[in-house]
From TrEMBL:
This is Fe2OG dioxygenase domain-containing protein. Gene3D superfamilies: B-lactam Antibiotic, Isopenicillin N Synthase, Chain. PROSITE patterns: FE2OG_OXY (PS51471). Belongs to the iron/ascorbate-dependent oxidoreductase family. SUPFAM superfamilies: Clavaminate synthase-like. It comes from Xanthoceras sorbifolium. Residues 155-256 form the Fe2OG dioxygenase domain.
Amino acid sequence: MEECQLPLIDLSGLNSHDQKETNACAAAICRASSEWGFFQVVNHGISPELLSKMRREQELLFQTPFEIKATCGLLNNSYRWGSPTATCPKHFSWSEAFHIPLTKINEQACYGDFTSLRVVMTEFAAAMSKLAWLLARILVDNLSHQRDTVDNICHESTCFLRLNRYPVCPISAEIFGFVPHTDSDFLTILYQDQVGGLQLMKDSKWVAVKPNQDALIVNIGDLFQAWSNDIYKSVEHKVIANGKKERYSIAYFLCPSYDSLIGSCKEPSIYQKFTFREYRNQVQEDVKKNGHKIGLPRFLL
């Protein structure tokens, strides 16, 4: 498998006193979103100490016995494992996850005995949210003079964190850690360990993403591709199962409110207008019926 280095962007340029340097940094973000749909960021404002604390808490959480994770209502009863809708092995994901809405992250009742997790995850979610909104505004401003567009569309009530664990898989050659997919949001930020396994589609072939311990990975979601009229790309990606090491990651998903209308930033539009609720319902219907997501092609004009 060919290994790639994602575009690496130093976000300290956004705080430069030199306007040319600031503009160059913003341009690099927009260019990577168009050419790759993925990029890495360093000097992103989230401290290594916070990231390390979040990883430790995540590992402790997943070390909990399965019966407790699955039945005791942890984190808004958000525990999921495998792929209940899978219709064949290629639709199955060898992973477990907690899928937590931002609105629930600070609720003490969701954590049970994991009191230190609440403190760390509340701080972590706030930091990831700040970074996601910063990047989204840069990408919107690049295509639109309506500076409040992202603020009008995206809403904290539908954003969420997903804590992922990919256990060691004894049949790793036959199954995915996470099946090939695109993200059904505006923007995703990923904090991953150094095990590797993330792959993305580039120039019609799969390439492996080389981990970078200093960087967070950012990728464009379906709704940003639709809003940008295909200027920004929501790229198919997957996680390969590992037969020797477990893998951890945490993803932050920037989403619109359910009833926000996703229209194009310019005409003529490639896609019909739709709401996040309509898009989500269609994805769920397709997964239930076919075992996999179809996504944006459903909404082409």
